[in-house]
Each structure stands twice: as C-alpha cells, then as structure tokens.
Amino acid sequence: MENQENTSPPTPFYKKHWLPLLLAVLLVGFAGFHFLKINQLHSRFDKEKQVVVKEYITKIDSVQTLRLEQLIKVFSWSVRAELIRANQEEVNILFSTFVKEKGIRKVSLVDPKESTVFICSDKKDEGIKIEDPTLLTLDRITFTKPDEISVPIMGMNDKLGIMVVSVQKN
C-alpha cells in the first residue's frame, strides 16, 4: 500500500512555483508597459524638438533679414552722398569694398530714367536694360526677390538711382 501512495502523479511545475512565475509575468508586463511609454515620450520629444528648431530657424532668418536691411540702408546713405557729389568713382570703390562683406554677392545701381544699370560691382552687367517696372517705381527698401534687396537712392528733388544688392541666403 505504501507503493500506491507514492505513485500519485507529480504536481506540475507551474502549480508548485506559482508565485515566482506570477512575479516574472508581472515584471515582464511592467517592463513592456514602460518600454512603450518611453518610446511614446521619445517620439513626442522629437516632434517638439522639430517645432522648436523650426521656430528658431524662423527667428534667426528674421534677425538676419533685419540686419541685412539695416546694413544696406546705411550703405545706401554713403552711396547717396557720393551720387549727390557726382563722384561715381567713389561709388565704384564702395561697391567693390561692400561685395567683400560676408553674404553680399553683387551690388548694382540702376538709373531710373534710362532703366539701365550704370554702376555695378560686376562690370559685365553695366549697361544692361532693366525691364522690371516694379523695381523702377520703388519708394522704400524692398525684397524684390528672395535673394535681392532693392533700395531707392533719393536726391533732393528726384530719384538718383535704385541700388540692387544680391545677397547669399544660408
């Protein structure tokens, strides 16, 4: 009879060790949940980072644009002073010096009466006829193209010229 009592089927592993198995399943579930949560946070962080970078780039561009406008406005005052004195040689020197500044590609001065470029930092462009009517009727500093700023140079009673500055966009 003693043999019959010992021959009962052995208890399965999961019944014998139910507590460690339950803790292992809970640990895996807990780790999986937090892994998913971390991935969601990373994706949200990346989206927010892209938004902040776009805003930063926009602000930097607007600051650079404002800086360029101010620089060109002050430069136009020097050109105006020399044009009033009819000193075109000095304007040529100013243009060639200004083109050496970072971000400036070319500077041209357009005669509004004849619609031609009469002074330019790139000498091959002198004498070119300007067909753009909006350029010839400017009354304030304006971005005529994304990489071009135009400034009217005013004399005492009339428009002496229109300075067109081509800039390099970053």
Task: Give structural notes.
The protein is α+β, with helices and mostly antiparallel strands and 170 residues long. It has one domain (47-167): Beta-Lactamase (2-Layer Sandwich), CATH 3.30.450.20. Helices cover 54% and strands 19% of the residues. The chain is built from 5 helices and 5 strands; from the N terminus they run H-H-H-H-E-E-H-E-E-E. The protein has helices at 2-6, 13-16, 18-84, 88-98, 133-136; strands at residues 104-111, 116-120, 142-145, 148-154, 159-167. The chain has a 5-stranded antiparallel β-sheet. Strand 4 and strand 5 (159-167) form a beta hairpin. Helix 3 (18-84) runs antiparallel to helix 4. The protein is rod-shaped. The termini are far apart. The mean pLDDT is 87.
